[in-house]
Fold each of these.
Amino acid sequence: MTALLSLDRVSKTFTQGRHEVRAVDDVSFDVRQGECLAIVGESGSGKSTIANMILGIYPPTAGTIAFKGEMLPAARTLAHRRAIQLVQQNPLSSLNPKRTVGASLRLPLDVHGLGERSARAARVGELLEEVGLPADYASRAPDALSGGQRQRVAIARALACQSDLVVLDEPTSALDVLVQARVLKLLNDLRKDRGLTYVFITHDLSVVRNIADRVAVFERGRLVELNPTETIFSDPHHPYTRRLIGAVPVVTADEVRLRDRLMENENERA
Amino acid sequence: MKRTLFILLRNPLSALGLFLVAMVVLSAVFADVIAPFPTHAGAVVDFANFNRPPEWPYIFGTDLVGRDLFSRILYAYRISLLLGVVVLVIAVPIGVTIGLVAGYLGGWTEYVLMRITDVFLSIPPLVLAMSMMGLLQPTLTNGMLAVTAMWWPWYTRLVYNLARSEKEEGYVLAAEVIGASRMHVIFREILPNCVPSIVTKMTLDLGFVILIASSLSFLGLGVQPPTPDLGSMVADGAKYLPDSWWLTVFPGLAILVAVFGFNLVGDALRDVLGGGQ
């Protein structure tokens, strides 16, 4: 598989007064075409900073980010913006409460001039149907939708650009468990149908198991482990990864056994 | 809109406010029809009936040259409201635009724009208006100019703070990631979320603009005779207190009714629309 997105020795330092904070420290990895790469870590591990640099919200302090073999500049062009889209954590905030669902979905079509002007209203309806919502929701305000429905609208908005790469920043953590499962299924289906590539940021390892092909584990700005999902769960290499898995609330006997085994090893090492 | 009106009417205080505002606005609009002596708004002299206490047909009495006070108050409302509306129509777009741009762009733009705003805010409003009126001719147009010059910075402050908190919302990030222009983000995404607070402040301010304009003409710096103005009517009558009490009491009450009414409605709107300051 070829690399869609490559981060090469990327660092990001934030200056707060006299203090310098290394949010991301010398990180290199590839995101392959068509995969779902999960980025996991605790808050403060630098995973959101990585997402923001990929989206071009701010440039890296050092290192380069390449998309389809082409270096991404600090000031992104419209074409760059179109190619990488975002689904945020909280759909309550990510949809403008004063604009209708239709207006929010139309924005990417208007900005990038997608389709004939007269066909865009119909396209908005199609987008809603693609994420399992009735087309007439376009005229509704976000207030009139449930949390799961709002997140579907946010996903539809990311699809509108027909981009190759979607950054999902904790897209399910603001939703309750049942809705979470349905949104994850939608995301999985969309990826298969359209050959999308996901960078899935989360701290929830049970979500990772359901959706990710590979997992990148971050600890205090460093990439400590990058392996296929099965390897991460069956044979985690880095102690930090083991601690993360150990901290997952478990339900099944298999998972209890796995946790006990892992924690035993960890205690022996310590 | 309908729901807002319904909530306003349910609360006795805001219903009273709406009633007072409606009264003021209707008297201003229909002054020609309501006023028993429409010509008394101008330079009319009727020495046979000068300085009369309230009695039919002069329900508020007459002034020192025999003009009907009731008719003059109606026309004074028209001028005051016109002044208030024109001041807000000019000051609000200027103040709001500067506030939005400073709040959203940040950095040097914010620094420069907000320091200019602070300079205007640091001058006591009446002093600024008085010096402007002193330099220019004391006409209605210059009165509006003076009041406008001291009014826009308050909107800049209000909207600047709103924009700064709104720009942290996810919908702004979403529009930026899509690649929307700054114009779109500022005026189509952030501005609609500031409108309730702006409308609330405008309602409150309509009363205050009338008060400030009256203060200016009380000092002899506002609207000039023979054009009727509540502030100069109070000032002219003050010399004849307490004997000719109607000369000051009725124009004074008229100011009170207008300011009180707009304040009640503004306060109620703030509660309903949730636009705090």
Amino acid sequence: MIPIILQEMRKVAGRRGSFWSAIGVTLALIATIVVASIIVRQVQDDTTGGKEALDLYTGLIFVPLVLFVLVASLGGAWDFANGTFRYLVVTGRPPWQLVATTMAGVILTSLTVTAPYVLAGIIQALVFPRDGTEAASGGDLAAFVWWCFALVTFWSFVALSVGVTLRSSGAGIAVALVLFFGGFPIAALVALLSETVAELLPNIAILRVGGEGDQSLTLALVATISWLIAFGATAIVRAERSEY
Amino acid sequence: MSDEAIIEVRGLTKAFGRRIAVNNVNLTVPRGTCFGFLGPNGAGKTTMMRMLLGLARPTSGVALVRGIDVRSARQAALARVGAIVEEPRFYPYLSGRANLEIWAAYWGGPAPARIPGLLDRVGLGGRGADKVKNYSQGMRQRLGLARALLNDPELLILDEPTNGLDVQAMQEFRQMVREMVEREGRTVFISSHQLHELERICDSVAIVNQGTVVIEGPMQALIADGEQGITLDCEDEDGVRRAVTAFPGVRDIQRKADGSLFINVPPTRETLIALNRALVGAGLPVAQISRSQQSLEERYMAITGESGPSGPGEVTK
């Protein structure tokens, strides 16, 4: 299975426009944060380290995440939209397995691109340390790593599932981005009716999994996993039931 | 299923809503042969091939490939099957070699090691590093054939594999198919619009029309069963008609698109001599006279009632 997943990662990396945009935005964001932090240090004789650095990186991960959503939805739709999925099916492997390996390849690629960002956050938190309660503990670092990777995995999975389900690169990207950006206003509207239900919406649930807010982690985890199962199952059922 | 059959189809039907694309087809493809599958556009050829490859689900009936039911055990049935369906599709932003490496990873086993040899075999040895988006249509067809051979298939299912090939590539393809059948013992199940090419490479053939197999059998028998007669080069059609009307055995006279006249009569040597005498005796200027039989294309036209896919000559009476 590993050679197949590596080839799936190669397919993602080969779509240079989306892939290098994701890398470029991630690296540019790291550079911007580092430069801004150095300037702040010189001007205000202050540092952006410890928990403050982790918070900064946590908040800004949504910038490259937009590109990861694009990469993943494209990854999900590409084989269907371009007729190559038919030739993958001819290898005899069941469609669910083909979708699963594509998911693994796309998510691993996104996590690989996220890794430098996470590493930069950790380094900055430790290089520009804070004292006392503002210092980044091992638990803070672990929570930061978990949050970044969980968020990227969740949204890559959702976007890829949308791409597989819709089978059109353009439509897949559009719907995935609407889910990504539109989730918060939708959650705000739902919250007017029921805050409990709003907590179960995918973009809110994954935030709670990352430790945002005071709501139950268990409930957030159940909601997040349920959404992953729902999106994944829809994609796999679509792939299994289709003809090529 | 007989030991000799690599494809056996029984009562295979595929309906899209109210439209029946493949209608109760029965077909047996002998192992180790090149089998042509012919028919006009929309006759159900590609749908049939897709069902054989598990890409489409039959509405009813059974398709056995290598003796295995494709529907219930697709992976086992296709383990040694290669295919080109409709047109070869690739990742155009990757090289030809990289594309083959992707499919080789899915096949596993010795497939990755076969890539260099296959690129050489299809004439892309020097272009394997080029991106597929820079390939011509013919090169993509060749790469498609290389991909179809990755898993060392016993059976190749090729849907219009000669599309985009130039004359030389077509000749190479013909040789390659015969080599695969005769030297390597593979079976090739092929559809093509190039009927004259199929006539040269196929051992057996089935003609399908409106979702139904109209006729099936060895190529030579199919052609031999067709109209036979005498072709002559003579501009005076009325004169020829007058001269041979009373000639025994003449069924009709047709003017072909190439300008020659076809006399539907048993083409024995004696008939040819007697007919030649009659024409000369009538003072008709005959430039050439010879025995002839229907080509696959003419036979195809007669059976399907349509013009051949590659644009044959029109026959007038």
